[in-house]
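Input record, target 12 of the design panel.
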């Protein structure tokens, strides 16, 4: 088992990474406050892992709630099912929630924990590659609104993150690829060495070779933890994790939540950011080809929906609601080079329009 630490003063927490960690009662015990534990999961993950997860909390009063599965259920309405359980079963302020599932379950459980009685503890047990490399770390929690992704939420850090890499054995190939989009993102924004490692090892990851997956999960979590420690609430550099997301979130909302996976939106959206970075003279054609090749090898889409499926006006309208917008300016994460990203609202509008028109 490998242990990393997210350094946030008295709210610092460990990330445990290893095979078969899910049922480990001794590992999680120190992070359970009080006696009441509510495991939040969904209809896909429950039959696979709920009993195993429950076993780790057997010495507590453990209950569970099973939500419908899917990005289209990441809503305030679904969140009420968690509050119904917490309030109906008389959970008190000293309870602990456990998020057992992918990023949707993690984001919703974290938000429920942030809001229930103005804040209770929670533990992240991520079971998808995407949630293991990204969403379980850093404390961004929330739900979607029809007009925008993650529009309603809170920063609320977990007590610990338990990454059982064995859970990846049951994950569908398309979901594994979606997770790779966020992995590649770390290489692009801040870690050129990792980008090169991915170029050499991406097929090993698709083949689920345990050493390759473990290395990439550890490196991703470390890269994320480093920036979160410096900028917990996205006052500055944390926004770099949004590479491809202003475009990608527009794709997810515009095409109907769940039709494009989050990671697929990030992949196509990152290529839109790459194209625009090339228009600005930051990246060369060779860089663009190299980045595109890696996303394609990871079996991810590199082009956004066609103009017929999603017009430029629809893109621009959805992008105008992005959380990074300042005084009406859509700020984008762009690349200076492979491994170096920056946030800017200072670009010619026609470059954005050319990107939306030409990179299709
Ligand atoms: N909070 C953050 O920092 C952050 C970061 C990145 C993404 N996100 C959010 O995360 C969400 C995407 O997360 P995701 O990609 O994990 O999607 P997801 O949670 O929808 O999970 C993908 C699918 O895999 C299933 N699944 C989960 N674990 C499984 C397993 N071990 N075996 C088989 N099936 C399994 C799920 O039930 C679901 O059908 C989006 O809502 C995105 O906005 C949040
Ligand atoms: O942790 C962060 O910060 C991120 O931006 C990680 C992203 O991968 C993630 O999709 C996040 O939810 C997007 O942030 P948002 O603030 O645009 O919703
Ligand atoms: Zn993301």
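The sequence produced for target 12 reads:
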């Amino acid at each position: 088992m490998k242990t990393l630490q997210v350094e946030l003063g008295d709210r610092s927490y460990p990330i445990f990474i290893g095979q078969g960690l899910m049922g480990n009662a001794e590992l999680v015990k120190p992070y359970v406050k009080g006696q009441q534990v509510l495991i939040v999961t969904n209809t896909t993950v429950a039959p696979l892992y709920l009993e195993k997860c429950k076993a780790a909390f057997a010495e507590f009063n453990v209950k569970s709630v099973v939500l419908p599965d899917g990005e289209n259920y990441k809503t305030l309405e679904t969140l009420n099912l968690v509050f119904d359980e917490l309030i109906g079963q008389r959970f008190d302020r000293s309870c602990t929630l456990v998020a057992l599932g992918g990023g949707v379950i993690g984001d919703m459980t974290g938000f429920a924990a942030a809001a229930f009685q103005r804040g209770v503890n929670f533990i992240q047990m991520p079971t998808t590659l995407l949630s293991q490399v990204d969403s379980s770390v850093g404390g961004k929690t929330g739900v979607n609104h029809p007009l925008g992704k993650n529009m309603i939420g809170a920063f609320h850090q977990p007590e610990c993150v338990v990454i059982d890499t064995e859970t990846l054995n049951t994950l569908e190939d398309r979901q594994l690829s979606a997770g790779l989009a966020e992995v590649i993102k770390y290489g692009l924004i801040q870690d050129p060495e990792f980008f090169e490692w991915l170029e050499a090892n991406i097929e090993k990851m698709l083949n689920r070779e345990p050493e390759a997956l473990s290395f990439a999960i550890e490196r991703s979590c470390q890269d994320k933890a480093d920036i979160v420690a410096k900028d917990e609430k996205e006052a500055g550099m944390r926004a770099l994790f949004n590479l491809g997301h202003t475009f990608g979130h527009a794709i997810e909302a515009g095409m109907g939540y769940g039709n494009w996976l989050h990671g697929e939106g990030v992949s196509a959206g990152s290529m839109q950011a790459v194209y625009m970075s090339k228009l600005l003279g930051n990246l060369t054609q060779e860089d663009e080809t190299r980045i595109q090749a890696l996303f394609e090898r990871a079996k991810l889409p590199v082009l956004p929906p066609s103009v017929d499926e999603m017009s430029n006006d629809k893109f621009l309208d959805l992008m105008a609601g992005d959380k990074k917008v300042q005084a009406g300016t859509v700020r984008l994460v762009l690349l200076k080079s492979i491994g170096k990203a920056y946030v800017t609202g200072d670009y010619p509008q026609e470059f954005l329009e050319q990107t939306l028109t030409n990179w299709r």
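Residues 134, 138, 140, 149-150, 182, 234, 238, 241-242, 245, 323 surround LNCXM5UN (ligand 2) (CB under 6 Å).
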